[in-house]
Amino acid sequence: MTVRDRFWEDIPLRQMTNEEWEALCDGCGRCCLNKLEDIDTDELIFTRVACRLFDDTTCRCANYAERKRIVPECVVLTPDTLKDIAYWMPETCAYRLLHDGQRLPDWHPLVTGDPASTLASGISMLGRTVPEHAIPVEDWEDYPLDD
């Protein structure tokens, strides 16, 4: 993968190459968590219930290339869709942060040069999720992400 040095600091999201765009993902897995929205407060609640394609041992999608076909409700993040779905992304998400004019966190793998820095930061969902097929949707609220 070829990316420009520290590209995220001065290249707008829309001008990034596909490799640079993909490199922004820190691999935390939080975007693959099912979320609930409180209808009274509009509060977004992340659950530990993961999408059926989420691989809890790698924090990656088990079929990234075909995810939208397999999981029609999957949101494919692009520069065009980001403006409408940024609020559904974790607050630590590089895409959301850059969209909002903020910097990447100090623990982000692009900043540290170490892909394990996401796990070391405590942000990673590695080994912390429950597969959605194991929990009835009406019980998802019993599995909030507490951290």
**Beta-strand content bin:** 5-15%
Largest sheet: 3 strands, mixed
Shape: globular
- C-alpha Rg, in Å? 15 Å
- The total of beta strands comes to 5
Structural class: alpha+beta
The number of helical runs is 6
**SSE run:** HEEEEHHHHHE
Integer count of domains: 1
Fraction of helical residues:
10-25%
What is the arithmetic mean of pLDDT? 94
Widest beta sheet: strand line-up? 1-2-5
Low-confidence stretches: none
Through-space gap between termini:
33 Å
Describe the model.
Belongs to the UPF0260 family. It holds the Pfam family CxxCxxCC. It comes from Roseinatronobacter monicus. This is UPF0260 protein BD293_0936. By secondary structure, the protein is an alpha+beta fold. It has one domain. The chain has six helices and five strands. It has helices at residues 18-23, 67-70, 79-85, 94-99, 109-112, 117-121; strands at residues 33-37, 44-50, 54-55, 60-61, 130-131. The protein has a three-stranded mixed β-sheet with strand order 1-2-5, with no helix packed on it. Strands 3-4 form a two-stranded antiparallel ribbon. The chain is globular and about 45 Å long.
Q: How is the secondary structure organized here?
A:
Blueprint: H1 18-23, E1 33-37, E2 44-50, E3 54-55, E4 60-61, H2 67-70, H3 79-85, H4 94-99, H5 109-112, H6 117-121, E5 130-131
Parallel strand pairs: 2-5
Antiparallel strand pairs: 1-2, 3-4
